[in-house]
Amino acid sequence: MSMLFELPQIGTVVGGHTSVHDDYQGGVTSIIRLNPDYPLESLQGLEEFSHVQVVWKMHLANPADIELHARSPRGNAAWPATGTFVHRNHRRPDQVGISHPRLLHVDGRDVHVTDLDAVDGSPVLVLAPWFPQMGPQGPVHVPRWVEDMLPDYWNNADARP
What pTM does this model have? Predict the structure, then answer.
């Protein structure tokens, strides 16, 4: 049986993307607004980092969207059917996103970022500085279909067709 965990919502995404899209996530500025129960000093020193790690809840997703079977990414039959834990979307059982936006500045409890692929109103569960030393070690490789699927992911949102 799966264990359930309860995580506090430490903040909320304000602004930025207003709807969910597969691509064209770049060039959008948003705010991670820390809840008022956290003192201002909890963000002290964060501005010295170029990037943060954000774990956020896909709050617009429906639990009925979860699919626990192999399927082709984005429904494209040209790409191989892969299991639930090979996908990075709202069809996963946790419906949680992990992002590494660029930190622009901190103003009070507002952490201004760009290139966060969460949408306005997303609950934030984790906010941490990005330490490259804790990132992947060794060469990183992905299957060809990932490269074929995501060439436009970080293109500027203003260029979205």
Answer: 0.91
